Amino acid sequence: MSSSGPGNLIALPSALSGIKPVIAGDSPESTASPVIQGQSPQSALPQSGDGLPEKARKTGLTRHALLIAWDSYRQAHPGRKATEIDREFLAGYNSAAIYPNLYATLGEISRQTLYRWKQMLDGTNDWTRLAPQYNRPSASRLTPIEERVFLGFLLTPNQIPIGTAIKFTKLLLSQRGCASDKSDMTFRRYADEFTARHYDLWVLMRQGQKALKDKVEPYIKRDPSVLEVGDALVADGHRLNFQVINPFTGKPCRATIIAYVDWKSFDLAGYEIMVNENTQVVASAMRNAIIALGKKPRVGYQDNGKAFKNRFFLGSPSFEEAGFHGLFGRLGIVPLFAAPYNARAKIVERWFKEFSNTFERLFPSFIGSSIADKPAYMLRNEKFHKALHNEYVPTIEETVQLLDAWLGFHRSQECPHAKGKSIGEVFAEGRGPGVELADLDDLMMDFKITRIDRNGIRFLGQDYYDENLYGLKEQVVIRYSLFNLTYIKVFALSGEFLCVANRVMSVHPLARVLGEAKDVEAVKQGIRQQRRLSQQTVKLAREYTKAGTHIKLDWQKVTEITPRISEKLEAEEVLTSETEEHIPEEAVISGDCPGITGEAVDSGLSPCDVTRLEPQTRPNFDTPTERYEWHLKHGVLTDEDAAWCVWFRTTDDFKMLLSYFQNQGKEGSGS
After folding, report:
1. Are residues 119 and 164 in the same domain?
2. What gap in Å lies between CA 167 and CA 184, rounded to an integer?
């Protein structure tokens, strides 16, 4: 049974007591080994042919050929003493006079050696018996119970040393009444052979699956030479191994750098340094990388960390249904995420190693990448190194300047993916024509669904307002940039752009008494805005009334004012009367025309117009107001028209539009 995997091992003891030989398919009382079942690690592996190493095979065949030659030489000299024949044969062989090829392999031998080899054959032609025993896989030097107990101590995640496992094995076996007489070297040799033959099982049981992946499993070689600059940006976060001044507290701290490395050129396309890793730092680093690259990358290969998988990048289905996408979608970048704890898949890890060795270790505030890597001045009782240590700690601004200077050195190194060219040359050859910064900021805006309140939109503890939001009270989508929170862009859920809302600043509560000139002006601007918006609502209400959109029932004497009349009223700046005005009785006079009163004079109609007009075709009118307006321009044609005009002057429509009709009548008469 093969023992190359953990599937054959059902249970292994990890303490000094309770060790029982448990085997797959066997009873607990079985004493066979769970892994190798009484065989050595070598013999447990499948062997090809005779199962011998090439050197052992060659030695065994050569020895067998020499014995055949020796026997033939004896048969060729019958009647002589065997000792004389053997002495003569060995003299010729050891001088390489005969069988020089055999001598080149075996060297000098004695007569006793020939006799011993002949005895090993035991009258057979099995040449494998002549092969060297130290090269041949042999039966295990340990008994099955010794193997089981010994491996039970070794194959545990506690990583018990081999020497300690030997002591525990012998102690436990002696307590069970089957003391081992094997030497410590025999146990150690068995452990070495087992490790060599079953290294995968050894690493998995003692160090875990990650170690198995990193040390045993084969890895995939990738060819970055087929990529172009900008095809893929590989990103990850790294805590700096030196201290900087925290801009918020003024105390030394370890900052975080987010780096985007171009896979092709191995150059740092963009980065950002901040005290804590978050989406703002990641977005800023990507923005800087795109600006330096001069174009948008095709693929963003990210770490599997929380900051990279935030919804700031991936978006969500509800936003996509509203017509919006995540950051990568808006930029046209395909986001890929590395598998967790798989550093070998990201070249940025190798970049960080070089960055640490050639940049971070040169800082006086270097504190090491681990506890074992601490500089001497940080250790206990190192007074000498503490006295020599430079206490200088740079600010973030100084760190950026030093990093930019180091990048000049880094870019002068040979590119690992393009032989014969430097990193800077490869990156410069693949740069794009450039990007529009304003468009880039707009594309990299995050989005959020929120509501409009009376004071605008509340976001991140601030109010954002624009006059286009006045009168709206609905859900909208806002886009904002973490680089500039002085304004937000507001969109309808359908994607229609509404406005740019600016952040509202608070004013002085007693500006006129205790405030400055700018405080007083801010208050005045707010009051003007309130009045302007109030007048806007009143104007809209008047237009609503003039348009006749206020519906009345029949018994409420609905007044129909057509949009055409409303437009003329607005052009003439005529205001509708709020109270009903009656025509004075003294204005009513008799005329020559039947049914025509003195009101015709006030309205611009003369009774003589009836006799001067010739009959003509009258158009169709939709409303009485249109008909009366037509009579003002063209006069009356019949007595029926005159009677109708008299009747219309008694209606509410005529009284409401009296001023307008008077102006029309004067224009028609040429006054």
Report:
1. no
2. 9
